[in-house]
Design a protein that fits this description.
With 426 residues, the chain is α+β, with helices and mostly antiparallel strands. It has a single domain, classed as Outer membrane efflux proteins (OEP). The chain contains 8 helices and 6 strands; from the N terminus they run H-E-H-H-E-E-H-H-E-H-E-E-H-H. The strands form 2 sheets. It has a 4-stranded antiparallel β-sheet, with no helix packed on it. Helix 1 packs antiparallel against helix 4 and helix 3 runs antiparallel to helix 4. The radius of gyration is 40 Å and the shape is elongated. It starts with a helix and ends in an 8-residue tail after the last helix. The N terminus is likely disordered.
């Protein structure tokens, strides 16, 4: 039994040992998920969309060119009759015109530049929103990753239990064959051994399922034999500041509203543009001529809409109110984030205390099992009594290794909630 306890303590000690070469880290899983998860592709797609939208907005600096053509037939035309019934020839009933209209904006209060900045801000907001979604993927990776680690620790502890039962069963079987013990003592150990092997099979099934899920999330198969490295956070992790993508989303939303406000204010000013039309047709500007000929018009146009100017102030005020809503949403997020961090901190403190107690209990159970093993060997106690003590010892050992994994998981939960990267891994 001493061998069992020492082995389990060594298993617990492996939580702090470097992983073998064929292992993967939690940080690696984060990186692969960020690169391979379908949602992550939206970041690059959004950058392309933003570049195209900025180019569209930039075209506002260029002359606007319209090409038009028309052919008409009218039932009546204007005739000019002079005294004596004489006059110029009447225009033809069928008329034709092909024209090119060019308009160049001279002044629009900087609306084109503001639209370009607005498209950039919208793109950054969408990218931040995508990263918020990817943060949920990081949380899923944490759950699956540590779920596998917990199952593996359970499997290791169960395997040690099986080894101990097999050793004790060998001793008891020999004594039964020599007539020193009753056969029932052997049967009790055999039944417990079967149950332990069932538990082992269930645990290994959970491990295989966990590896399959992890592979789906990170976008590559993860063999069951792959080791998972236990992450370790920096000692001063509680002093780190949040780096959540939600803050980028808040800031970029504010930037969008600022640009929309500036764009609304441009409507207070008149629009000034130069225009020109080059055309060919019949009749032209000289409606008395029935010949096909070319002609042109050039000029300057000023446009100012009364209601646009009035409503621009209202639109600007509405956008300011929306900015206040964003500020309130950020404050609410800060409170929720701090509440989550406080809960995790309490969980970390509780797990640390449990680990201290687990170590004390394991030492006491070790002493008890040393005596119990000898008592069973010499027939002082029954196999049922031995299994009862063995079960208690096994539970204490399992609680220790599980709490050590849970401590690491709680610390990673804290880092994930902060949105901080993991800089140190063991």
């Amino acid at each position: 039994m001493t061998t069992l306890i020492v082995s389990v303590l060594l298993v617990a000690g492996t939580l702090q040992q470097p992983a073998p070469a064929d292992s993967i880290s939690l940080q690696y899983c984060y990186r692969q998920a960020a690169e391979n998860y379908p949602t992550a592709k939206n970041i690059e797609l959004q950058r392309k969309i933003t570049d195209l939208n900025v180019e569209v907005a930039h075209s506002g600096y260029f002359p606007q060119i319209d090409v038009r053509g028309k052919a008409t037939y009218q039932s009546e035309v204007t005739e000019v009759l002079l005294p004596g019934g004489q006059g110029p020839p009447a225009p033809e009933n069928d008329q034709y015109e092909a024209s090119v209209d060019i308009t160049q904006t001279i002044f629009n209060a900087g609306a084109v530049g503001i639209r370009k900045d607005l498209e950039r801000a919208k793109g950054q907001r969408e990218i931040a929103s995508t990263r918020v979604q990817l943060h949920q993927i990081r949380t899923q990776v944490d759950q699956v990753y540590f779920g596998i680690l917990l199952s593996k620790r359970q499997a290791e502890t169960i395997q040690l239990l099986i080894k101990n039962l097999e050793e004790q069963l060998s001793t008891v079987r020999s004594r039964v064959e020599n007539g020193v013990m009753l056969s029932s003592q052997q049967y009790i150990l055999e039944a417990e051994l079967i149950k332990a092997r069932q538990d082992s099979a269930d645990t290994h099934s959970n491990i295989r399922a966990g590896y399959a899920v992890l592979g789906e999330i990170i976008g590559e198969p993860v063999p069951v034999h792959t080791g998972l490295m236990i992450p370790e956070v920096e000692a001063n992790y509680r002093a780190l500041q949040p780096q959540r993508s939600e803050y980028d989303e808040f800031e970029n939303t504010q930037a969008v509203l600022n640009q929309q406000q500036e764009l609304a204010e441009t409507k207070q000013w008149p629009r000034i543009s130069a225009f020109g039309t080059a055309a060919y047709g019949r009749p032209g500007l000289n409606f008395l001529s029935n010949e096909f000929h070319d002609y042109y018009i050039v000029g300057v146009r000023v446009k100012w809409n009364f209601w646009d100017a009035i409503n621009s102030g209202r639109a600007s005020e509405a956008l300011q109110i929306q900015q206040q809503k964003i500020t309130q949403n950020r404050r609410a997020f800060d409170r929720q984030l701090q509440a989550s961090l406080d809960r995790i901190s309490e969980r970390i403190a509780s797990i640390r205390e449990n680990i201290k107690r687990d170590k004390e209990i394991v030492e006491l159970r070790k002493k008890i099992m040393d005596e119990t093993g000898s008592q069973l060997k010499y027939g002082v106690i029954t196999a049922t009594e031995y299994i009862a003590e063995l079960t208690r010892a096994n539970r204490a050992q399992l609680s220790l290794v599980i709490n050590q994994v849970r401590l690491s998981q709680a610390q990673i939960d804290y880092m994930t909630t902060l949105g901080q990267p993991i800089s140190t891994l063991k």
